[in-house]
Amino acid sequence: MELLKQRIRQDGTVKGNDVLKVDSFLNHQIDVALLEEIGREFQRRFADCGVNKILTIEASGIGIACITAQSFHCPVVFAKKSQTKNIAGEVYTTRVESFTHGKVYDVIVSKKFLGPGDNVLIIDDFLANGAALDGLIDLVEQSGAKLAGAGVVIEKAFQPGGDRIRARGVKVEALARVKSMSEETGVEFAD
Ligand code: 5GP
User: Fold this and answer.
1) Which ligand 1 atom is nearest residue 61's CA?
2) Å from CA of 29 to ligand 1 middle
3) What is the pTM of this model?
4) How far does residue 27's CA lie from ligand 1's centre (Å)?
5) Of the candidates 191, 155, 174, which has an alpha carbon nearest to the alpha carbon of residue 42?
6) pLDDT value of position 99
7) How far away, in angstroms, is 49 Cα from ligand 1 center?
8) pLDDT at 86
9) Which positions of the chain have pLDDT values less than 50?
10) Can you tell me the distance from the alpha carbon of 32 to that of 25, in angstroms, rounded to the nearest whole number?
11) Which residue's CA lies nearest to atom 5 of ligand 1?
12) Which of ligand 1's atoms lies nearest the C-alpha of 96?
């Protein structure tokens, strides 16, 4: 998606070797007009997949998922990072290691909001090692829902998550794929 790549070139900043900061337009301050374009692009890429629910993870995925859902005319469910245990069995639970914080979180989704009748599109801001997507796919599998695929705004293609999850047979669409990046030279895209 050319508009997104231009914006990353213009406003993205690279920290160390593997963190791309896009907080001036994507995940802290949000450019809503850009998100609308992103939502429409996800809709084009998953148009024939029969999506009836969007699943994301708090916090950065929520805004992107909500605007994308306007194009699909479907609800959004977000997996919550939880402190409380699943005593009553009313939630699906999985564990996700956060790429940016290095912590492991329990994440939950209520069984009320995901089940065998759903055909789920997973949406997130970044794909790096794939832990967040693995966790969300696990929740979909536990629920008996169908997985239509996963859409990520930015894939860091030099990290292993994208190849590994595509090899599992999941349709993964990334709107910008970063081939390499450094503080000195900035970002280079894969395609
Ligand atoms: P993964 O689980 O694929 O390793 O990492 C994906 C998650 O980590 C995303 O939900 C995103 O919030 C965060 N993340 C991974 N890499 C980056 C990055 O380069 N920049 C930012 N801002 N977040 C990232």
Assistant:
1) 10
2) 17
3) 0.97
4) 11
5) 174
6) 86
7) 26
8) 62
9) none
10) 8
11) 128
12) 2
**Long-range Cβ contact pairs of 159-162 (< 8 A, separation 24 or more):** 159/18, 159/127, 159/128, 159/129, 160/129, 160/130, 161/127, 161/128, 161/129, 161/130, 161/131, 161/133, 162/127, 162/130
Match 């979909």 to its residue by tokens. 140
CA of 124, closest atom in ligand 1: 10
Contact 182, 170 (CB under 8 A): no
Q: Which long-range contacts (CB under 8 A, 24 or more apart) does 68-73 make?
A: 68/38, 68/39, 68/42, 68/43, 68/121, 68/123, 68/151, 69/39, 70/39, 71/39, 71/40, 71/42, 71/43, 72/43, 72/46, 72/121
Q: Is the peptide bond before 59 cis (omega within 30 degrees of 0)?
A: yes
Ligand 1 binding pocket (C-beta < 6 A) is 19-21, 27, 60, 99-100, 124-132, 161
Distance 88 CA to ligand 1 centre (A): 31
Say how far apart CA 24 and CA 75 lie, in whole Å.
Answer: 27
Question: Rounded to the nearest 5°, which phi and psi values hold at 150?
Answer: -135, 135
Domains contained in the chain, CATH given = 2-182 (3.40.50.2020)
Q: What is the pLDDT of residue 87?
A: 60
